[in-house]
Amino acid sequence: MKIVITSATALEWKDIRHNINPLYTQAQNKINVIFHISGVGTLLSTYSLTQLMLTKKPDLVIQVGIAGSFTPTLPPGTVTIVQHEYMGDTGVFENNQFYDIFDLQLENQNEFPFQNKCLSNPWLTEFNLLKLPAVTGVTVNEVSTSSIQINRLINKYGAQIESMEGAPLHFTGLSTQTPFIQLRAISNFVGERDKSKWQIKLALNNLTNDVLRLIDALNDDQKINNFQ
Fold first, then answer.
1. 8 A C-beta contact, residue 215 and residue 98
2. What confidence tens digit (pLDDT) does each residue in 55-94 have?
3. Strands (DSSP E) along 46-168, which ranges?
4. Contact call for residues 33 and 25 (beta carbons, < 8 A)
5. Contact at 8 Å (CB) between 88 and 157?
6. Which of 15, 53, 139, 173 has the smallest C-beta neighbourhood within 10 Å, fewest atoms?
7. Helix axis angle, 166-176 to 42-56, nearest 10°
8. Cα distance between residue 185 and residue 77, in whole Å
9. Which residues have a Cβ under 8 Å from the Cβ of 225 and sit 6 or more positions away?
10. Rounded to an integer, what distance in angstroms lies between the CA atom of residue 10 and that of residue 36?
11. What is the DSSP code (8-state) at residue 123?
């Protein structure tokens, strides 16, 4: 089973690579893990992930990274798995309202791989072996700081977390039929400008521990025999 662990920057997976069982990085092992950097934001990550999926043809792509939380029920340090992902800032702001490309009828909200504007992960049940909390994410190219923007994303999309690369993963995975999961550790609440209150180290430590546990679980899971 070929697994790719991808993130926007090496910072988000460097401790995973440092601590992973060396057997998992050997091609002859039943679990073979490689690491990938997609770049930051939707433009770089969409191109990079498309190239990755078409050329490497992995059996599973695991996107790891930190994220901001919109809700106190997901405090810093929480590791989540994203079930539904939305594009949060592709559209136009007009007359004090935001209209996305589906509202503008520039795209069909149910045209594959979208379902009611959403990019949902059909492989979540199969690969969420740690039973992490499944959440709704929203992807933006500009980190949200204003209360107006934050409330819009919550009310319009039901967003629980925010990232800058989630939608590219879901879009490319669905389009190429490449199984994927998105693991996000909460580092801060969206809108918090004082970075001294961010808990990036805690988030990355918890993320590393859970990804390592997930790889072990996949190695032990009988379903991986289907990939050999």
1. no
2. 999 999 999 999 999 999 999 999 999 999 999 999 898 8
3. 60-69, 79-87, 91-94, 97-100, 119-120, 134-139, 161-163
4. yes
5. yes
6. 15
7. 30
8. 6
9. none
10. 8
11. T
For residues 119 and 84, the answer to whether their CB atoms sit within 8 Å is: yes
First to last CA, the chain: 6
Is the pTM higher than 0.70?
yes
DSSP class of residue 200 equals H
Note whether 14 and 208 are within 8 A (CB): no
What the block records as the tokens of 206 is 């918890």
Can you tell me the distance from the alpha carbon of 173 to that of 73, in angstroms, rounded to the nearest whole number? Answer: 28
Tokens of 157: 């999309």
* Residue position matching structure tokens 């969420």: 128
pLDDT in tens, 152-190: 999 999 999 999 999 999 999 999 999 999 999 999 999
Which of 173, 175, 157 has the alpha carbon at shortest distance from 113?
175
Q: Which amino acid is at 107?
A: E
Any idea which residue has 């918890």 for tokens? 206
Tokens of 47: 């191109």
Burial class from Cβ neighbours inside 10 Å (0-12, 13-18, 19+) for residue 60 reads buried
The pair of structure tokens assigned to 3 is 């697994």
**Residue 191 DSSP one-character state:** T
Measured torsion, CA atoms of residues 221, 223, 225, 228, in degrees rounded to the nearest 10: -110
